[in-house]
Write a structure and sequence with these properties.
24% of the residues lie in helices and 26% in strands. It contains 3 helices and 4 strands; from the N terminus they run E-H-H-E-H-E-E. It has a 4-stranded mixed beta sheet, covered by helices on one side. The radius of gyration is 15 Å and the shape is globular.
Length: 122
């Protein structure tokens, strides 16, 4: 396909993301409620740093930041793919809609729990 002259990949913290217009943003932000961190399995806590897990008091603090920043960075019809907590679908869909996105698809994980949302900037 020879995409090297048409494809650029960036890995960045959302707060340090380069300004520009993008076709696609994929994010796995922290989405666990601060109060739930103490209940995580020891292998999760021992493997991941807390800032990779802590989604704030409501679990969507970092997700809101990603959506807000993505609404400025994505081209019209650009796609945002987000990993979310299994119980956050409705809350995150509302945040996406309020920031100019159309939710295209909900993807379930192997346990049949909501895990990912794909959306398009309208």
């Amino acid at each position: 396909m020879n995409l090297s002259n048409r494809l650029k990949l960036y890995k960045s913290d959302i707060d340090k993301f380069n300004l520009g217009k993008y076709d696609l943003i994929v994010s796995n932000p922290p989405y666990i409620c601060r109060s739930d961190l103490k209940n995580l399995m020891k292998d999760v806590i021992g493997y991941e740093p807390e800032n990779a897990l802590n989604g704030g008091n409501d679990g969507v603090f970092e997700i809101k930041k990603v959506i807000n920043k993505s609404s400025k960075l994505l081209k019209k019809n650009g796609k945002l793919i987000l990993e979310i907590g299994y119980n956050q679908k409705d809350k995150v869909k509302e945040i996406l809609k309020n920031n100019g996105f159309f939710v295209q698809k909900v993807i379930k994980d192997f346990g049949k729990k909501n895990r990912c949302l794909t959306s398009i900037k309208i």
